[in-house]
Amino acid sequence: MQAYHGKLLELVAIDTEANQPFLQIRLSFEQDIELLWKIDADTANHLKTVTTLGQSHKYRLSFSSFWDADQHQYMSFLTRTHRNQSEKIYFPCSEAYVNGLNAIKYSEQINQIQALHFLTNHSQHIHPVQQQKATPHRFSRKFSWIVAATLAITAIISFGNYPMNNLEVIQNITVKANGADNETPLDLTVIEESPLVEQQQTANHFPKEPGTEPTIPTSEPVFPTSVLNEVISYSILEGTVALTFDDGPSKYTKEITDILKSYQVGGTFFFVGSNVLKYPNHVQYVHANGHTIGSHSMKHTDLIKLSYEKQELDLLHTNQLIEEVIQEKVILFRPPYGSNNEETLKVMENNQTKMVLWNTDTLDWKSHNADKIVNAVQTSKVSGSIILLHESQAVIDALPQIIDYLQSQDLQIVNLQ
Ligand SMILES: [Zn+2]
């Protein structure tokens, strides 16, 4: 479990000074400070249309953002809280806004945040959190912008002390229940089930999916682990073998986990962001049972069609969704279709992420047939292999025989890390 620092970003006002729109925000992080955030007019206008500031509602800006491929638009959201009711409201935003969010989010110290060029201290006073004022402040006319011109900044990505906003745990996200369709867009306005006033929430209070009530074990079993040392891995050490499960979480996740657990063997799951939103309980279940989780893009996108920036954003968004559930850094990634290019490699390197490919393909997604899947494993060179599987009933049916076979070959079935 990584240490992390929760940050809260409250939107106090939206204003314009000399044709420059800006947000007045209150950042709670170590201390409570008020900042002015210079933003683009489009994002400011979108925010204005979804807020009525100065009323009794509170607005908290999310650090989450994603690229909406259908709308060709970045999206983020804010949470409007009124008494015990809170509501998640999505709004279109600019890439500069996304970069700004990331820069704040990944800053480890308050002085790093204050040094960001698009931010200005609203007040010279730094209020300790205990003295936080509830009423919105009026804007001071005296502020001066530190830096003008470009809003584009580079997100500061840091690895140690990875900050996560504890208040943005997935539990407050509800999505349309649309079966197995990975491309289901999020509901744009979702009434949440619980107030967001608590600063500490545990990761297992997720919205209950009908009919699923996974039991969360309190201790994590430890499975043999193979630590990957390369930016890209296709195989692991002889004498070991890795079972990998793609495209979940799904209705099959829990059963796959239970089979691995009953054999006390490792397994690695590569989750698609849109499915993480549908089945956060299953993400938690896999993690609580000690198996590794990697990411597999937001919407199972063929990454090589995307620019470096969009590939990176997709990775960070997917990782964030998973990390908010498991409260642990995601370090493994498998590109959909195995499709990757130079840009993908740079994204991996710049984000300390390891790409996991495979050298044994069971073609399970094609046959949907347990016998054929087992046969594919038995006719492969399994020692040192990373075996590609997908979450499905056929894989559940095949899994005990696959594990029996691998164990009969004296192989250690490992978690990847
Ligand atoms: Zn896939």
Query: Approximately what portion of the residues adopt beta-strand conformation?
Result: 15-25%
- Tell me the span between the first and last alpha carbons: 14 Å
Radius of gyration: 23 Å
Question: What sort of overall outline do the alpha carbons produce when their principal axes are compared?
Answer: elongated
Please trace the helix and strand order, writing H or E for each element: EEEHEEEHHEEEEEHEHHEHEHEEHHEHE
Provide a count of the helices: 11
Please explain how this structure is put together.
The chain has 417 residues and is α/β, with parallel strands linked by helices. The protein folds into 2 domains: 8-191, no CATH class; 225-416, TIM Barrel, CATH 3.20.20. Helix content is 26%, strand content 24%. The chain is built from 11 helices and 18 strands. The protein has helices at residues 41-50, 95-106, 110-114, 253-263, 273-278, 280-288, 308-326, 342-350, 364-367, 370-378, 393-408, and strands spanning 8-17, 20-29, 31-38, 58-68, 73-82, 85-93, 119-121, 189-191, 225-226, 232-233, 240-248, 268-271, 292-295, 332-333, 354-356, 360-361, 386-390, 412-416. The strands form 3 sheets. It has an 8-stranded antiparallel β-sheet, with helices on both faces. α4 packs parallel to α11, α7 (308-326) packs across α8 (342-350) and α10 (370-378) runs parallel beside α11. The longest helix is centred in the last third of the chain and has 19 residues, at 308-326. The relative contact order is 0.13. Bound molecules: zinc ion. Zinc ion binds next to β11.
In short:
The protein has 417 residues and is α/β, with parallel strands linked by helices.
